[in-house]
Structure to design on (386 residues):
C-alpha cells in the first residue's frame, strides 16, 4: 500500500503536518491508522486530530484526480482505486467512532470541552462541537415536548450529566508499548492488593485498565490494539 | 404522576403549616415514586431516540413509510434535525464536498462485486456511462462503491459464491 502512494504522487510527495514538520504520505497514513485504532479501542473520546483528517482528505482528492487522468483498463488504476477505497474506509471509520462516542456521552463531552484550559489541545473539532451542541438541544427539546411538560412543575428538568452514563475509564484495553516507560503506578483493585509500579518495555504488549495508561495514549507512547 | 404530586403537595402544605413531622416519610416516599416514574418515562423515550438514530444510519435519509407511521410528530422532527446536523458535519469534513461517512461501513474486499437484484429498480448508470437494467433476479458484476447504497436499501443482494 505504501508503494502505491509514493508512486502515485510524483513530485507532490511531501505534506505539511500542521506543525512545521513535513510528512510523507506513508507517514500520514500510518498516523491515520494509529489514530483510528486508538479511537476504536479507547472507551473515552480522544484528542481531535483534525490536521490528519484534512491532510488525508487532500491526499484522497489528489489521488482521485490522478486516477481520472490515467487511461481506463490500466492495471495500476484498479490497484490505486482499491487503495483509495481502503483509505476512505479508515477515515470514515475513524470519524464514525468519534461521532458515536460524542452521541453516547454528549453532556460529558460538552462539559469537558467547556472546562478545559485555553492552552490544552481540544477534544472536539469546531464541527464536532457544533454537532454535539445541536444534538443536546435537539434531545432536550424532544424530551421537553413529549414528556417533561406534562410532569409536575418540580420535575420538568432532567439533569443530563446524571442521566447519561459517563464513559467507563476502568475498562481493560490491550496495548503495545512504543516508547519505554518506567514506573507506571498501577492502582489496586481490591483492598487486599497494594498499588505497585510496572516498567513497560518497548515492544511489549499488555492488558491494563484504561485509566492507568490514558495519558500515555494521548502522548503517543503506547498504541491500543 | 399528577395524582401523586398533588397528594404530596397537600401533605407538604399541611406539614409546613401545622408542623406535623410525621407526614415527612410519606412525602419522601411519594417523591421517590415520582422520580422513578420520571426516570422510566425518560429512559423509554431516549431508547426510542437511539433506535431512530440507528434507522438513519441503516436506511439513509428517507425512511420507509411504515416506519414513519410508528413515529410521533416530535420524533419526526428530532429525526429531521439529526439528519441536518449529521449532513452539516459530513459536509464540513475537509475539502469542499466533504465525506459521506455513512458509506463504507465494512472494509473493502474487492473492487467489483457480484450482486443479484431483488426487486425491479429500473435503470442504473455506472461511472463509464453504461446503463444497466435492474430487473428482478438478474445478476450483475458491478463496482462496489456504487452498489453499497442499494444493498442497504434492499434492492440488490451481494452474492458470495
Amino acid at each position: 500500500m505504501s508503494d502505491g502512494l509514493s508512486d502515485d504522487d510524483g513530485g507532490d510527495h511531501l505534506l505539511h503536518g500542521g506543525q512545521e514538520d513535513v510528512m510523507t504520505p506513508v507517514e500520514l497514513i500510518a498516523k491515520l491508522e494509529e489514530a483510528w485504532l486508538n479511537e476504536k479501542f479507547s472507551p473515552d473520546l480522544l484528542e481531535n486530530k483534525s490536521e490528519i483528517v484534512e491532510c488525508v482528505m487532500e491526499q484522497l482528492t489528489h489521488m482521485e484526480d490522478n486516477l481520472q487522468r490515467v487511461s481506463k483498463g490500466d492495471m495500476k488504476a484498479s490497484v490505486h482505486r482499491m487503495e483509495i477505497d481502503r483509505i476512505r474506509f479508515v477515515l470514515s471509520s475513524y470519524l464514525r467512532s468519534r461521532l458515536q462516542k460524542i452521541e453516547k456521552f454528549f453532556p460529558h463531552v460538552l462539559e469537558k470541552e467547556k472546562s478545559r484550559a485555553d492552552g490544552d489541545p481540544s477534544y472536539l473539532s469546531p464541527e464536532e462541537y457544533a454537532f454535539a451542541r445541536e444534538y443536546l438541544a435537539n434531545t432536550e427539546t424532544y424530551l421537553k415536548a413529549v414528556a417533561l411538560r406534562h410532569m409536575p412543575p418540580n420535575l420538568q428538568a432532567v439533569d443530563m450529566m446524571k442521566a447519561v452514563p459517563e464513559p467507563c475509564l476502568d475498562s481493560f484495553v490491550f496495548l503495545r508499548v512504543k516508547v519505554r516507560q518506567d514506573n507506571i503506578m498501577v492502582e489496586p483493585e481490591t483492598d487486599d492488593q497494594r498499588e505497585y509500579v510496572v516498567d513497560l518495555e518497548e515492544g511489549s504488549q499488555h492488558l491494563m485498565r484504561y485509566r492507568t495508561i490514558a495519558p500515555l495514549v494521548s502522548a503517543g507512547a503506547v498504541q491500543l490494539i | 404522576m399528577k395524582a401523586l404530586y398533588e397528594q404530596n403537595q397537600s401533605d407538604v402544605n399541611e406539614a409546613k403549616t401545622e408542623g406535623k413531622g410525621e407526614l415527612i416519610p410519606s412525602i419522601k416516599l411519594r417523591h421517590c415514586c415520582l422520580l422513578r416514574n420520571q426516570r422510566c418515562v425518560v429512559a423509554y423515550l431516549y431508547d426510542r431516540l437511539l433506535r431512530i438514530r440507528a434507522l438513519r444510519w441503516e436506511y439513509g435519509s428517507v425512511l420507509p413509510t411504515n416506519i414513519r407511521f410508528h413515529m410521533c410528530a416530535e420524533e419526526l422532527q428530532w429525526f429531521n434535525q439529526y439528519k441536518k446536523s449529521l449532513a452539516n458535519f459530513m459536509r464540513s469534513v475537509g475539502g469542499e464536498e466533504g465525506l459521506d461517512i455513512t458509506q463504507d461501513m465494512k472494509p473493502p474486499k474487492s473492487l467489483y462485486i457480484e450482486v443479484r437484484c431483488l426487486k425491479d429498480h429500473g435503470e442504473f448508470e455506472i461511472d463509464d456511462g453504461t446503463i444497466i437494467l435492474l430487473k428482478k433476479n438478474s445478476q450483475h458484476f458491478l463496482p462496489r462503491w456504487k452498489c453499497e447504497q442499494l444493498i442497504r436499501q434492499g434492492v440488490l443482494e451481494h452474492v458470495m459464491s
Chain B has a mean pLDDT of 75. The beta strands of chain B are 112-117, 122-125, 131-134, 139-143, 156-158. Residues 24-59 of chain B form the longest helix (36 residues). Helices of chain B lie at 2-18, 24-59, 65-69, 73-92, 144-153.
